[in-house]
Task: inverse folding
């Protein structure tokens, strides 16, 4: 399948502020406010009527959509109120359906008003060279999201942006040919779409989730096939970057369990990775979470502590001098990393993030 070079972006913005010699970091100017941080947030596309049913179980009263369970004051130790439920909170707006464009429009409006630059839409295609927007539910929802963002930007004179978070769904042995087919389809259909304009590259942003878990041969083959057409970011650690970094334009790290309270390396692990990436002249996108809880599924918990975890990690990861931020996440209710307004927390986390964005990094 042939692909067309994606000439969609505006290119990196050129700062007019003075810089510290040799740093590229704007120098402090008395009386001038901070430049807002550039933040994208991971956004999941699986919330259909069926998916809510799968996560809330048959006993849940869908007509009223109450809180499905309880959790302690720090965001841990969940308990469900309905048999079969796997989550303990739901969106403030109710059980939305991502087969409807109005859902994406509401979320774009909320995020844009909070100062979020864009969403990294989680997606995996069918792996076929002949796939189209109707080949799967994921393809159709992704296509609807892109169209909705374009319409929203046109109607509101805004520049909300999308990036692609290419998902693995645990299959790290997926043939490189299928990954390439997915990304070639993405480029051929969306590579020039204005929804993907960004300030980092004329090419659309693609973060390859769990890139470090693929074989070296797959990473090389996939990069050679698609990197000329996408701004290819990895999901790497300090241990994997020296091997994989040559094939990537930069990286983030989807560290959904970064724990500033109980992990003595929570800061140093990220700092080490950022230093390696910058030493290679490439760009680094710092992660952040408000908390994490997968105890109902046998996993661990990172306490939210109100908004303390969010602000602590922002401060900690700011020290890595990120080129941008990739937040985890807008709507991951199973792992409880969600930032979107919910019935339990209201808009607490979106408001806190908005304040951090305005303050800058």
Result:
């Amino acid at each position: 399948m042939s692909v067309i070079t994606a000439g969609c972006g505006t290119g990196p913005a050129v700062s007019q502020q003075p810089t510290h010699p040799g740093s590229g970091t704007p120098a402090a100017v008395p009386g001038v406010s901070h430049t807002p941080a550039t933040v994208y947030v991971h956004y999941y596309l699986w919330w259909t009527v069926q998916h809510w049913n799968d996560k809330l179980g048959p006993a849940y009263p869908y007509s009223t959509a109450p809180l499905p369970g309880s959790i302690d004051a720090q965001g841990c130790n969940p308990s469900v109120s309905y048999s079969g439920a796997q989550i303990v909170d739901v969106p403030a707006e109710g059980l939305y359906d991502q087969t409807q464009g109005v859902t994406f429009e509401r979320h774009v409006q909320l995020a844009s008003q909070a100062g979020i630059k864009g969403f990294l839409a989680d997606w995996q295609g069918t792996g076929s060279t002949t796939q189209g927007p109707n080949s799967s539910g994921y393809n159709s929802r992704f296509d609807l999201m892109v169209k909705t963002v374009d319409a929203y930007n046109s109607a509101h004179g805004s520049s909300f942006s999308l990036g692609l978070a290419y998902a693995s769904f645990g299959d790290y042995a997926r043939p490189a040919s299928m990954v390439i087919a997915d990304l070639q389809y993405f480029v051929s259909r969306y590579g020039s779409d204005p929804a993907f304009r960004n300030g980092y590259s004329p090419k659309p942003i693609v973060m390859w989730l769990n890139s470090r878990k693929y074989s070296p041969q797959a990473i090389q083959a996939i990069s050679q096939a698609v990197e000329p057409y996408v701004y290819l970011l990895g999901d790497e650690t300090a241990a994997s970057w020296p091997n994989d970094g040559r094939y990537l334009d930069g990286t983030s790290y989807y560290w959904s369990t970064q724990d500033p309270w109980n992990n003595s390396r929570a800061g140093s692990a990220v700092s080490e990775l950022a230093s390696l990436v910058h030493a290679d002249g490439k760009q680094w996108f710092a992660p952040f979470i408000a908390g994490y809880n997968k105890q109902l599924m046998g996993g661990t918990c990172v306490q939210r502590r109100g908004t303390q975890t969010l602000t602590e990690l922002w401060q900690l990861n700011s020290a890595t001098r990120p080129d941008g931020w990739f937040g985890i996440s807008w709507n991951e209710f199973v792992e409880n990393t969600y930032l979107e307004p919910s019935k339990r927390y209201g808009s607490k986390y979106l408001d806190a993030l908005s304040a951090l964005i305005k303050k800058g990094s």
Q: What stands out?
A: The domain at 39-359 is CATH 3.20.20.80 (TIM Barrel). The first strand starts at residue 39 and ends at 43.
